[in-house]
Every structure is written in structure tokens, then in C-alpha cells.
Amino acid sequence: MELIVGTYGQRLILFELDAATFDVLGTGMFEAENTSYLALSPDKRYLFAVSESGESSGVYSFRVHPNDRLKPFPHGRIEKLSEIRGTSPDPCHLVYIQGYFNRCGDPDNGALLTADYSGGTVTVFPVRSGRIEGPSQVLRFEGSGPVPERQTASHIHQLIPCGNLLLAVDLGSDCIHVLRLFDGAVRPLCDGRLDRTLRLKRLFDIPAPAGSGPRHLVFDKGGSHFYVITELSNEILVYSTPDLAAAHDRPVLLQRLPVGDASFPEQAGGDIQLSPDGRH
Asked: What is the DSSP secondary structure assignment for residue 119, as one 8-state letter?
């Protein structure tokens, strides 16, 4: 079993673990600056990472070679393919969606979307054969909240694809933006596929309580509810989930559940996950 870790330092670290005991069997280090959130392509051939570095922020892509002890790789198990600098400041989350920005005869294409915390933006990058190209769209949000130390502007913290929609969690504006993923220019290719250019369009916002600072969300297994962890009020918000694409249906806030220990006011929620069976 392997674990790849972003360190906010100068390297990615790959840990090889014993699947039964979780003992570390080996490690590898690969140069990458201020990496935090990582994402693999569905076939696990490519690794994408954000670099949170203020005005010199960026994104990386890497090729992940199979673990074969008998076959050395001249660039290591994780080989850097591309690096884009000068993106919207401090991307902190990213998702990769296959099937966009296709080229004739090349199936390994898609779109990389980043949640840019300090920039208050969502950025779309074409990806071709694992290599990231310059941004094709930067969607900027304007907003604020009642906590002046943290909410003077929009701060996009997480992106969640949901069918042909994208949810963008905004800590700075106390809301979740609902965006539509749609095709821009579409043209046929020589191999029968379509070249689709991904574009984002704003639909509506799902409000969160003022000053709560929503950070991450997760859907339940049935898709009838989603749960939001808040960083500023330290709560879990429970929403019902109607048909988000319907014209008049909107999610409804059902519960606000405090989390953590009230005797430690400096604690803050950072992530939320469901257990594998979906019960916790």
C-alpha cells in the first residue's frame, strides 16, 4: 500500500506501507514546493497537486509509474510532467474531470479545477496527456462575512462535482456556490470523439449561517443529504438535498451540530469524511 503526502515544504513524500500493520517499508521524496491538496486521475496514472505560495502559487502534474522493484525509473516513481506558476493565489483544493479538451487520437485529456482560497476564484486548466496548460477560465466571486479577521473577501475552500454541477464551498462569504459544468466550443475529432471545452456558469448560492465559515462538505451515500464542516463556528451543518438542477428546489438547512470541545476555543474543523459504510 502506498501513501503520497503533500508537506507544505519543498517535497512530496511517498510512503510504502505494510497493508496489515501499516509499518513504513520505504519512502521516496520528490521536489515540489508548498504542496497541500493532491488528486489522482481515475486510472491513477497521473497525480495533480496545488502549490499554495501566495502570488507565485501554482499547480503541478506528475506521472505515477507502477511499483516495479525490478525496473528502475530515471526520474523516479513520481515524474514531474508540468508546472504552472502565477495562478490565482493560494489554490487549496482541486478536482480532475476526464473527457474535456480532447485531441484526435489522444484519450488522456481532461480539466483540472482549483479552489483558490486567497484569490476567491475557481480556475479551469486544460490537461492533455497529463500535462497542465494555461487556464482557460477564471471565475471570480465577490463577498464577505461578519468575521473581519477571516471574511473580508470570498475564500473558495473546496470543489465537489455533482453530475453536471459543481459545488464551490466559500468560507469567506458563508455560502456554497452552485455552478453548472457545460460545454463551450464542441467540434468532432478524427477518431469519432468530440472535443469539448469545459466552462463554468453560476446558478445560485446555498446560504450557510452568518460567521460559520463553511470549509468542506460530503454527501451521504444516498445523495439525499450533505454535511458541511465549518471552520469558524466549529459545527456540522446538515442540509437536505433536492434535485439541485431543478428550477425551484433548493437545499434546506436541517440541523446545526456543535463539534469538538468548547474548552478549546482555538480548535477549528478542517475536513469531513463518511465512514466506508456511510453510517458515521
From this structure: T
Q: How far is CA 185 from CA 188, 190, 197, in A?
A: 10, 16, 6
C-alpha cell, 97: 474531470
Q: Residues 245-269, buried b or exposed e (16+ Cβ, 10 A)?
A: eeeeeebeeeeeeeeeeeeeeeebb
d(C-alpha 193, C-alpha 109), whole Å? 12
The continuous run of DSSP H or E covering 127 comes out as: strand 121-128
DSSP bridge partners of 226: 219, 239
Residue 70 — very low, low, confident or very high, per pLDDT cuts 50/70/90?
Answer: very low
pTM, rounded to two decimals: 0.91
User: What is d(CA 138, CA 206) in angstroms, rounded to the nearest whole number?
Assistant: 21
pLDDT, mean of residues 224-245: 91
Q: HSE-up of 273 (CA within 13 Å, CB side)?
A: 5
Residue pLDDT, tens place only, 27-66? 888 899 999 999 999 988 999 999 999 999 999 999 998 7
